[in-house]
Amino acid sequence: MARPLRIAFPGAFYHVTARGNERKAVFKSIRDRQKFLEYLETATARYNALIHAYCLMDNHYHLLLETPSGNLPQIMRHINGAYTTYFNVKRARAGHLFQGRYKAIVVQMDAYAKELSRYIHLNPVRAKLAETPDKYEWSSYNFYIGVKKAPGWLHRDFILGYFGDKVSNAQLGYKKFVSLLVARKYDSPLKEVTASVLLGSQDFIQFIKGSYLSDKTPDRDLPAIRQLGSRITYLEICDMVELEFRQDPVAARNIKLYLCRKHTGEKLRTIGAQFGIGDAAVTQACKRFKLRLEKDRKLRKKIEQFEKKLFL
Length: 312
Known about the structure:
By secondary structure, the protein is α+β, with helices and mostly antiparallel strands. It has 14 helices and 5 strands. It has a 5-stranded mixed beta sheet, with helices on both faces. A hairpin with a 3-residue loop joins strand 2 (50-56) and strand 3. It is elongated and about 70 Å long. The two termini are 31 Å apart. Mean pLDDT is 90; it is low at 218-222.
């Protein structure tokens, strides 16, 4: 059975979610939600967890948390384990409460902190449980905008710091930031996740792979390792293309686009951003280059040989 890849190190940031078995409710009363928040508080006291943002829905929850001590598994055993025990005792039931293992994505916080916190706080709006995030009681949003006094265990300073040094200005700025998307459809920042476990730039992904995954070997029970190990990065492709095709800059650009689309697993938007074009332009450029390869046997052979060199 496939297992989620756990990447734990001091100072790591995570977006964590867990869902109820068969998508059933894990929070059935106000007291249930209060009790879960109590376990978040004790996780900060006992295990040095930093909770940056949260949202409790009916059948799942979202957390944005940091682990200064690099002990995510211990933190999550406490939160999910203690809450499951409480839930089962209260309702005279036995067995698992949550569906499988929790999902934890390692996040490059400097790039994604604001977006992820907004995504978490807008969860009730997307689910049509509230018209605006301030109308939903069971998230950290109202603490962020100053409607309620924040508990001491909620760590807001990091994200609010992006909106100003003065607390009142930061709270107003954050409220405006979240309000921009209340009535709009938008892409989830989680669409940019690599191998279901990493959210960040290619440099960040390479750093995590080199620092914390270098001793991991391919394992059929850990599909994320296979995905991360099999992917070449945008920077690696571009560097090698520059060396091989530097005499023809136009061709080199098209080859980079084509090979990045084919081999990196990156989203079209991410690839396009590297070249200053939109995702539709990436698609069209790759289609044109593929047609050219079909017609130009000599070029096709050259690209095939180059691809073999890429993966040596």
